[in-house]
Amino acid sequence: MTGLTLAAARRSYLDSFKIDVLGKGRQVEWFDSPPHPLFTKSKAFDFVWRMPYRRDVQVYGKLEHFAKASESIENGAGDCEDKAILLADLWLGLGLKPVVVVGDTLAGGHAWVEMDGYVYDPTWDHQLPAQAYYDKYGVRPEFWFTDDAWGVP
């Protein structure tokens, strides 16, 4: 993930609260209406994990683009940070407090979601205790952000 600033990532994340939760073309704004009662934390993870992985250059014609959740839904695909942002937005709508983390792994630059001591990686289909994930993949976080905060480790 080159050329991306923390401010640009956070701005994209904060702009991404309008999403089509059930794929029916109806936009939901989390702060104005509750999520569908059948939409759960695990269904959100499964939905995002099953979304095809496509690099930003294929979707947006740019080396790096932190997509809004609505863009990922509209395009039906995304890369690791797009999937992490979409998952975090879905979980925010369920009243959860996810954190999007961006960093390096043994495989290169990557993004995932952390919450309550666990890593939820909708790109690699992993749900592991954070330390186990960090150890297994040689993780070095670079920065993190939520809907109302950001920082560096």
Summarize the structure in words.
With 153 residues, the protein is α+β, with helices and mostly antiparallel strands. The protein has a domain at 6-100 and 146-151. Helix content is 34%, strand content 23%. The chain is built from 6 helices and 8 strands; from the N terminus they run αββααααββββαββ. It has a 6-stranded antiparallel β-sheet, sandwiched between helices. It has a two-stranded antiparallel sheet with strand order 1-2. Helix 2 runs antiparallel to helix 5 and helix 4 crosses helix 5. The longest helix has 14 residues, at 80-93. The protein is globular. Mean pLDDT is 80; it is low at 1-6 and 13-34.
Layout: helices, strands, pairs:
Layout: H1 6-14, E1 18-19, E2 28-29, H2 41-50, H3 56-59, H4 69-75, H5 80-93, E3 99-105, E4 108-115, E5 118-121, E6 126-129, H6 130-137, E7 140-145, E8 150-151
Antiparallel strand pairs: 1-2, 3-4, 3-7, 4-5, 5-6, 7-8
Helix pairs in contact: 2-5, 4-5
